[in-house]
Amino acid sequence: MISERDSETTFEEDSQPNDEVVPYSDDETEDELDSRQPGAEQGLNQSSRDTEESRDPGRKDCSWQVKANDQRFYDQPSFKRRIFLCFKKSKYAGNAIKTYKYNPITFLPLNLFEQFKRAANFYFLVLLILQSIPQISTLSWYTTLVPLLLVLGITAVKDLVDDIARYRMDNEVNNRTCDVIKDGRFKATKWKDIKVGDIIRLKKNTFVPADILLLSSSEPNSLCYVETAELDGETNLKFKMALEVTHRHLQEESALADFDGLVECEEPNNRLDKFTGTLSWRNSNYPLDADKILLRGCKMRNTDFCHGMVIFAGADTKIMKNSGKTRFKRTKIDSLMNYMVYTIIVVLILLSAGLAIGHTYWEQQVGNSSWYLYDAQDLSPAYRGFLNFWGYIIVLNTMVPISLYVSVEVIRFGQSYFINWDLQMYYPEKDTAAKARTTTLNEQLGQIQYIFSDKTGTLTQNIMTFKKCCINGQRYEVLFCACYLSHSHEIKIVICSSMVPVVLQQRPAASSLCPGSNPTGQLNYQAASPDEGALVTAARSFGYVFLSRTQNTITISEMGVERTYDVLAILDFNSDRKRMSVIVRESGGNIRLYCKGADTVIYQRLHPRNLKREATEEALDVFANETLRTLCLCYRDISQDEFEAWNKKFVEASLATSHRDEALDKVYEEIEKNLILLGATAIEDKLQDGVPETISRLSKADIKIWVLTGDKKETAENIGFSCELLTEETAICYGEDTSALLQARLENQRNRAGSSPHSSLRMNEPFFQDSRDRALIITGSWLNEILLEKKKKKKKLKLKFPRTAEEKKKQAEKRRRAEAYKEQQQQNFVDLACECRAVICCRVTPKQKAMVVELVKKYKKAITLAIGDGANDVNMIKTAHIGVGISGQEGMQAVMSSDYSFGQFRYLQRLLLVHGRWSYIRMCKFLRYFFYKNFAFTLVHIWYSFFNGFSAQTAYEDWFITLYNVLYSSLPVLLVGLFDQDVSDKLSLRFPRLYVLGQRDLLFNYKKFFLSLLHGAVTSLIIFFIPYGAYLKSMGQDGEAPADYQSFAVTAASSLIFVVNFQIGLDTSYWTFVNAFSVFGSIALYFGITFDLHSAGIHVLFPSGFQFTGTAPNALRQPYLWLTMILSIAICLLPIVAQRFLFMTIWPSESDKIQRNRRKLLQEQQHRTRRQSAFRRGVSARRSAYAFSHQRGYADLISSGRSLRKRRAPLDAVLADFSLFNNFLCWYKTVSTFRICHGKQFCLCAPFH
The P-type ATPase C-terminal domain covers which part of the protein (predicted)? Predict the structure, then answer.
């Protein structure tokens, strides 16, 4: 008998996952899915929902009302919202936009407020305030003010420049003009004066000023062409179409002025591809959708003019709703650096407290008994110690580096430009350069441990070629541009069935207005996805040419015979349906439904008696084994009565104001059944160049690559072999194997926890005991099953609700156990997957892609990178630590959401192994040295305290303290952070193992931080005590002892400048003239400024600010002091030189070995040859998936009933070349053979000789 605990957590055996099925929609959460369960639960909750809706009428989907040409309509109290106390404002925004933040009055206070929200800036502001108190400050106020003003000034100037650019852009946009109906006539009006409900007129090549409802246009049937590059980055033209009723009646100016329609639609939102509303006019209601809306930011193309009604204005427009804040990404080094700054602050407080206690003790023992130290203030030793605590906080403040954050941003900015300027990451075929879209993540590119990649368009080219097809169970392959397949009646049917739904989604290229109208007389199509373009091109090659289309008809030339089909309805594609259908009336009056779609959804809807079902399925397996993308084609005859009954439901669903998509999907299901299978098509999508080599190099760098794709398991697996992610020696685990392993592990964990109450559920032993190379291939359905994310089916209705505290406690405990089990199961899955060399997740939704990335981030604490090219990859890209977009065939959505972008997957290896590794090494070296030089500089004050009664006196001149981090030591380390490299880019690619340093955080961590602290402390000891010992008993050439405080300060400061600049020279791996100039130039700059500040002239002008008059000239002319400085420098640097020599000789690192042999290695690099692919064909029969477009189709636009073109090209002109091709075919048939085969052989056309 199964216990209660087991019944809650055991997998359901009666509902095993289906590898062929894509999980539920991303828009549905688990709670939403549960709420859709039929039965009594739904009825039980219905009353409560009705009650809530009655209490809150604003919950209705269409609560936004817009009336044309009636501004008084918006003055109703119901359209007002409270903004403050009793002040109210209209909920309808004006059309003026404001993206700038400042004006001349608010710039200074607002910018300073924003900058002082940063902890470092606020810290130094507090220090500046403390320095203004004379009782506790021994340091001049300008020592903190100058660096703080420099940091604030640089940031403020940058912010001001950016804001001025935004202000000018806003001003330019707001002052654009368009024609708006006022007083019954069109008048030129600025955009900022446009209001909701206005009727406007737009002209060709102008931008759309607001989100408007298209009413009519100059094109036939009120067609409107728009370019949406400002919205989604896509440059191909989109089509919008007005309602037929507005097209007929709203062409004239007077009719537009009298228009009084009322639009009820959804509230303003950021969904660019969705719109739901209804137009009420002349006692009739008309459905509105996204195809009738022109969005702000679109540009009119190929349309002389159009008229529209403003629905959303200004901040309510969809493009402005999408301009919200994106997720802020922070690097691992950023977080570590912040913790180290906090550690420095703690150390600073502890040191100050210790020195304050020392001063208290000194006052008690020495200060009170020394009459010559009396300052006329009778303060207790404890109080003096308290004041000195704050004094030391000020003196030692340079331990917290104020210029650190600014320097880091400068380095990152420069590294981003190096990525942008890299010609080896430039893709000439599309004129696409690499682009660093952020400047904050460069060094994290050198720490990637997991890469999550899409397949289609990322690993593959996403450029489709029609290769094979199956018709009536017979397989055909095209080896030449065309075959004589067109003489088969079955092929005619399959091409027509493919042609009608596919061609209906075709659009002419931007250069032509209709098929055949370009100068060459050729037909040009622009498809919603590359697959559909390949099918239409193949149909044209076979003699089935799409000629023209209206919204009610489509005209095709079938082997030279022109035929027209009446389009009755289009059942559009979406990500849930995975199919598209069209209902047409043929010339004989027959009504027929044609459907294309993925085999998984088509086979579920086939008529039980399909004679060619098994043969077609066998063909699909054969096609899939060659990594071809498949599509099933079918049809169904419909009677007139059945169509009329169904069409009524279709119209009702189209007019629904709420849940319209769900209502349409339900109606579609009623007609898409009992389909007759015609055949299948197979399309080739080749790998991109360099993919196998890139994956091989990244794997050698210990980077694990996971492929997350919506394609079927067989296609994904074969692609894995072709790109060498999988090899012949790889042992593959599938979903069922994974489930069994996880279930066994969970039982062991439970048994262990049951035997020992204090035992942890965590088990560290591996899942696989042998050392074989393994890979995991899992589908989205199994992923939901294993991770407990699947839709749960209720076996029985539970109408009883907890009434007592005990029952509530039991339910809470049950939920807690379920959550703990779910978390444990997810952690076990991640552990198992990470033991595999490669993971392929197929048939996954965008939501699941992001979930997998999040799981690895959560349980492995690993740095992740996601790379994709389509809109379905955006969620994954935003979830990963670093998102990379590829400028592919599916628009620019992925690129616009990414942190880095380029044209091909192969550039990823250079981004990570070269730029990422260099950026990481540079940043780590910069931070280690930055902390070192600040500790070496600041800790001298502590050693000096033991000789001045812990009185918080400084060891240096005030101006030296001010300029040390700003001028004397900043440039060399900044250049190392920008230009340094341990090995060249070619060697970095040849030896990917060099990348491991960043993954393991070996170059910058708390150990390295404390070593820098220790190194700085030792340097400060030498810098202080060597001059101190030299000055103890010394005599100058002039017989005077130079042992005064000011000479000592100059000697220590000079020694420090030499040491820290020579130290960065030792740390530099890649020497250039710029590096050498910065090191020696910084030293020269120090001496130049020091001699000027110690001159008599500046002391005369500012006697209180410059008190070291003549110190540097007097002290530095003593040879004894120069010998002292040389001794200090030698003792500081010689041990470092010796230590590095020993390490490079006895324990050399990988980069040391490569540097030693770099010339030999570069010569070998030139003779290396490209490895051959290990792709295996014909291993097993698996089926690939057809990838639809990632956007919704154009069915609603097409089915409104009017012509999309003014005219079409004559049939004779279109088929002129086709007749010549027919003659060639007749000759070709005499010298070629065409074999139709069954079984395992392919059907081939004989090659052309």
Answer: 895-1149
- 1086 C-beta neighbours (distance < 10 Å), count: 22
| Other CB atoms within 10 A of residue 680 CB | 27
Burial letters 113-146, b for 16+ CB under 10 A, else e:
eebbeeebbebbbebbebbeeeebbbbbbbbbbb
3-state secondary structure of 596: strand
CA atoms within 13 A on the CB side of 110: 11
* Whole-angstrom distance, CA of residue 872 vs CA of residue 846: 5
Q: Is 869 annotated as a binding residue?
A: yes
Do residues 873 and 982 both lie within one domain?
Answer: no
- For residue 28, being part of any structural domain is answered with no
Could you tell me if residue 1243 is inside a domain? no
| Residue 473: CATH number of its domain | 3.40.1110.10
Average pLDDT across each block of 10 residues of the chain; the chain has 1249 residues. List them in order.
37 50 45 37 37 37 84 85 76 86 88 81 83 77 80 84 85 90 91 92 91 89 78 67 88 91 89 85 88 88 90 88 65 86 89 92 78 70 89 86 81 92 91 87 93 85 82 77 38 34 31 35 60 79 77 80 87 77 88 88 88 87 80 91 91 79 87 90 84 91 89 77 83 85 83 59 68 84 78 47 75 85 87 89 84 91 89 83 81 78 92 95 94 94 91 88 88 92 89 91 92 95 92 64 80 95 92 92 94 83 78 84 92 93 87 80 64 42 41 44 41 44 44 36 32
* DSSP run (H or E) holding 530: helix 530-541
The four Cα atoms 430, 433, 434, 436 give a dihedral, to 10 degrees, of -120
868 is in an annotated binding site: no
Q: Are residues 573 and 661 in the same domain?
A: yes
Does residue 364 fall inside a structural domain?
Answer: no
Q: Is 445 found in the same domain as 467?
A: no
Which CATH number goes with the domain that contains 872? Answer: 3.40.50.1000
- pTM score, whole prediction: 0.74
The DSSP code sequence of 642-702 is HHHHHHHHHHHHHT-SSSHHHHHHHHHHHHS-SBEEEEEEEEEEEEPTTHHHHHHHHHHTT
* pLDDT at residue number 972: 93
Looking at 1149, 1174, 1197, the residue that finishes a domain is 1149
Q: Is 532 known to sit in a ligand binding site? A: yes
Looking at residue 3, what is its pLDDT? 39
DSSP state of 750: H
375 carries an active-site annotation: no
What count of other Cβ atoms lies within 10 Å of the Cβ of residue 102? Answer: 17
- Total structural domains within the chain: 3
Q: What is the pLDDT of residue 797?
A: 44
pLDDT value, residue 500? 32
Contacts of 897 (CB under 8 A, 6+ apart): 326, 874, 877, 878, 883, 885
**Which residue of the set 198, 454, 599, 1067 is catalytic?**
454
* Angle, helices 1073-1093/1045-1067, rounded to nearest 10 degrees: 170
Residue 234 annotated as lining a ligand binding site: no
Final residue belonging to a domain, choices 1149, 1176, 1209: 1149
564 is known to lie in a ligand binding site:
no
Question: Are residues 487 and 626 located together in one domain of the fold?
Answer: yes
Residue 985: domain span: 917-1149
Q: Are residues 862 and 884 in the same domain?
A: yes
Q: Is 872 annotated as a binding residue?
A: yes
894/1043 same-domain check: no
> Is residue 955 within 8 Å of 944, Cβ to Cβ?
yes
**Would you state the pLDDT for residue 489?**
35
Residue 371 counted as domain residue = no
Whether residue 890 is found in the same domain as residue 944: no
Residues 851 and 949 in one domain: no
User: What is the reported pLDDT for 845?
Assistant: 78
Residue 596 marked ligand-binding:
yes
Cα 966 to Cα 144, 402, 403, 411, 1079: the distances in Å are 11, 10, 8, 16, 14
What confidence score (pLDDT) does residue 1201 get? 40
